[in-house]
Amino acid sequence: MDAEASRRKLWGIAYRVTGCAADADEIVQESYARMLERRPDEGERPIEAWLVTVATRLSIDRLRRRRETPYDGPWLPSPVETPDDESDGPDARLGAFEEATFAYLMALEVLSPEQRAALVLRDVFELPAREAGAVLGVTEDNIRALHHRARARLSDAGELPAVGPDARRRTEAALQAFFACVIAGDAAGALRLLRDDACTYNDGAGVYHAARRPVHGADRVVRLWLGLMHKRGAPSSVALVTINGLPALDARFDDGDPKDAPRSITGGWLAPDGRIATLYAVLAPRKLAHLG
């Protein structure tokens, strides 16, 4: 068993099922701790398969508990920095960026925990139905049914944004142009860059000031961002980073009100016509703690 490859695989499963990097870290640690407590007989079942089962079931439990706990404002996934070039894969925590974008992870929120795990195991990690069924403790027919229902529900979310060099270039240009307009107070310019039904999600987890619900409609999105910029002021520094396969802006702010976030990761994705369809901003400190 390649220990590092197995660890990355467990982390990738846990992150995609829970949507939270901190949860994925804890799940991987717990999986290995359980292995050391009662090491499985590798002659009966490969250790990696045993670990995948433990990590997946822990992830399902963690996702179920998260959904049962009230959350203050829109919930967003944890941002994970990814290399610009997928050829850097050996050091990447995610790989398969198309199945780890913010759009994909947010779309997965409509699925039940079991459906989400089935989709991740079958589509992302390409486990055969028999192996995926063994992980979830169901028959092959049941895993196929879970997978089919998950795919059907996911398709209702519409086409997910592309990930690749061209998509990254266009997204980077659109984000930089939009926030240049916001900083300059150019509402008309910002509006031209958004699709009419654009939306924005801000996740402060109740720790920092943030919109308490998703904001829909280009006019309202622009008003929100202009208002936030007027109140908070321009960031003291901004760095371009690649988050979950697409560009995002890592903004730092000088000291302000204790409820003003000192840092935000802001990104989004484009509609087919090149205008911005969705913007997100992650301010929640637990979700940014693991970023450099």
* Number of contiguous helices: 11
Contiguous low-pLDDT stretches (5 residues minimum) are 86-93
CATH class placement of the largest domain: Alpha Beta
**C-alpha-based Rg, rounded:** 20 Å
* Mean pLDDT figure: 91
Q: Looking at the structure, what is the overall shape? A: elongated
> What's the domain count?
2
Strand tally is 6
**Hey, roughly how much beta strand do the residues contain?**
5-15%
Annotated CATH topology of the largest domain: Nuclear Transport Factor 2, Chain: A
Main sheet attributes: strand count, strand direction, barrel closure: 6 strands, mixed
Strand-pairing-aware structural class? alpha+beta
DSSP helix fraction = 40-55%
Distance between the termini: 30 Å
The appropriate CATH architecture of the largest domain is Roll
| H/E series | HHHHHHHHHEEHEEEEH
Name the strands of the widest sheet in spatial order.
Answer: 2-1-6-5-4-3
